[in-house]
Design a protein that fits this description.
Layout lengths: L7 H21 L13 E2 L8 E7 L11 E2 L5 E3 L2 E5 L7 E9 L2 E20 L11 E8 L2 E6 L10 H5 L5 H9 L1 E5 L7 E9 L2 E6 L2 E7 L8 E22 L1
Antiparallel strand pairs: 1-2, 2-14, 3-6, 4-5, 5-14, 6-14, 7-8, 7-11, 7-14, 8-9, 9-10, 11-12, 12-13
Length: about 250
């Protein structure tokens, strides 16, 4: 191979070429999600309590799809100042955002079930895929029939018994464990109506408020998983609209 020597100008040209190639490769990545720009501001903490930070804030006044929000659904879009989360085939109506790692957090958002039966918000630890399937830890599902809280980390997604769950080889003991890892209550949520939801994770407890009224709370050990670094929304049905998302944690 013939050796090539570059002067200072040559090195500059080579560097520009490499930067251009890297940029093209980044643009070609399907569903690449940047880490959130937060925390940008500190929440005023109550004396004696841990500090909390704004981990993510979104009012959908600009198009952040695929730059901040990742999705599998090609039909999902940001339009008219809201996120229109749509499903284009089974399992492909999901949104996700990477944020700075947190232990406890509060998620606030407004939503409307346009043509869907439920909206789910979940949280993950993407460094824990060896202990829990896909890093999934837990979720809250708000539907027209019921509202459900699930501890996925201790329950069906724990890798110690995930394969038994997927293969339909669940023992009575596992059935009892799975049952202890979720809770549901009847729902009064209606299609075509906007609601403000607030989900609070604190230690091993999750609490949900709708329009300022507490709807349910549930304690389960998986909620206390010491690290979360992603949260996600999922539409169950065809379409849900989202707005005014705020995540505060620490």
């Amino acid at each position: 191979m013939r050796a090539v020597c570059l002067d200072g100008r040559g090195f500059c040209i080579l560097a520009l070429i490499l930067v251009g190639v890297a940029s093209c490769l980044a643009q070609e990545g399907d569903g690449v999600v940047e880490r959130s720009k937060y925390p940008l501001e500190k929440v005023v903490a109550v004396e004696g309590e841990d500090e909390e930070w704004v981990l993510h804030r979104e009012d959908f006044s600009e198009d952040t799809l695929y730059r901040i929000w990742g999705t599998l659904s090609e039909n999902t879009e940001i339009a008219d100042g809201v996120m229109k989360l749509r499903r284009d085939e089974p399992g492909r109506g999901k949104l996700k955002v990477s944020v700075e790692p947190f232990v406890d957090a509060e998620f606030t958002f407004r939503f409307q079930l346009v043509d869907g039966t439920a909206l789910s918000i979940g949280w993950d630890d993407m460094t824990a895929k060896r202990v829990t399937h896909a890093g999934h830890l837990g979720r809250v599902t708000i539907g027209t029939r019921e509202i459900r809280m699930v501890d996925s980390r201790t329950g069906i997604y724990d890798m110690k018994h995930y394969h038994a769950y997927r293969e339909g080889k669940v023992t009575p003991e596992l059935e009892a464990l799975f049952a202890r890892c979720e809770k549901s209550v009847p729902s009064m949520v209606e299609t075509g109506k906007w609601y403000e939801a607030r989900v609070r994770l604190a230690g091993d407890e999750a609490v949900l408020w709708l329009d300022g009224e507490e709807v349910m709370r549930f304690r389960s050990p998986g909620f206390a998983h010491p690290r979360k670094d992603m949260y996600r929304f999922r539409v169950i049905g065809e379409e849900v609209e989202l707005d005014d998302v705020l995540v505060v944690g620490g």
